[in-house]
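lol so apparently i was supposed to do this last week
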Amino acid sequence: MALLPILTAPDPRLKKKSQPVATVDAELRQLMDDMLETMYAAPGIGLAAPQVGALKRVIVLDIDREEVKTGPLLMANPEIIEASDEDVSYEEGCLSVPEHYAEVVRPAKVRVRYLDREGARQEMECEGLLATCVQHEIDHLDGILFIDHISALKRNMILRKLLKTRKEKERDEAEGKPTDKAKDKDSAHAL
Ligand code: ZN
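anyway here it is w/ zinc ion bound
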């Protein structure tokens, strides 16, 4: 297993559409396992392949809350086949949009169809945080970030701040300054 570098916005690869997986083979299982390890280390509760630069329709999740405990979920070619009319709003964050959060409205319940780690077809009813997370990760496969669901004004403000942080980090690195700021991220929201 290996930790993979996570791309952050604005990165053109995060805006691309990912390709469906033909078969779940050893190479794909390796990617899934590496993604899961990378997600746990971040820490986060969901990660999509394009976030580590692989334009494949693969997502991993593991939600461990009092109200939902899913265990590790590895999904290839996930698709929403049903969505509730009822919506919920949840304050989302993203490992590719570090340290920014916003309320996003999505269907409260969805049914997702996918191939598991063995390549078997599965269907799962998702609600609560799991429903939010599955929809957030599938969005990544279509080049959509949670900030694409909020106002352009707020989105552009976040993107400008991310660019500024990146430039500061690059300058510090060039000057040999330590850049590893203490992480006090709330991993509750890092999808
Ligand atoms: Zn995300």
